[in-house]
Amino acid sequence: MINFETQQAIAFVTLSRKDKQNALNFVMFKQLTSVIKKIKKDPTIRAVVIQGDGENFCAGLDVAAVMKSPINIAKLLFKWLPGNCNLAQQVVLGWQSLSVPVFAVVQGNCFGGGLQIAIGADYRIVHPDAKLAIMEARWGLCPDMGANVVLPGLLKHDDAMWLASHADPISADKALQLGLITEINADPKQRCLAMINTLLARSPDTLAAIKRVTQQSFNTPRRQILAKETISQIRLLINSNTKKAIAKAKGADNIEYQNSKRW
Predict the structure, then answer these.
(1) In the chain, what are the helix, strand and coil shares in percent, each to the nearest 5?
(2) Angle at CA of residue 150, ends 96 and 236, nearest 5°
(3) What is the DSSP letter of 182?
(4) Which tens digits make up the pLDDT trace of 25-44?
(5) Do 13 and 75 meet the contact criterion of CB atoms below 8 Å apart?
């Protein structure tokens, strides 16, 4: 599940389902939002490190576990207003709401929702052998966890579309070339801690101001994007082609898609 500890003003948030490559279940979404709130209330925390337990960062959503309870799907997507964050979006954009720098230590597989969580961090330090992918299209779905708010500040328009559409893993080198990650390092955690050590020499108010000004300079129509993500995902969840995409992802042959609806 989610392990949380603080050491020397650094909060360490660990995705811990090693046997499932740290794939996300519903409880982990709830725990992540609680951890973000806890960090926000603690003025002694100067930086955050998000990491995966074991050899992988996160394999994405544990589809089988979440699909067992339709009510949990509704809870993930529910929001009072279209432009608000739902639970799935909070675990990505929640890191952006913190005034302290947030680092993602990425190794092994970083797929789907796992990559979107990493995108929510301010810095992504990645092992050279890591594989990264936005995989929702493989299941007939679209990325809907809020990463589309952040991606315009990282990728070109066509690169963002292609990454989300082909749904295949890319190498760390390719991710760096695209601008999706910050650095490649053979020891990403130690590199993160070295960067944090540099930042600890700066005023926390200065770092908070820089984060907010930088966010504003790359400002996107956040509420419209969040609304479009959720509405599009709901439409896809009830779309007959989504069932065909899931069957194809599970290995079914001779899948033929119906003509697209009007979008």
Answers:
(1) 50, 15, 35
(2) 115
(3) S
(4) 999 999 999 999 999 999 99
(5) no
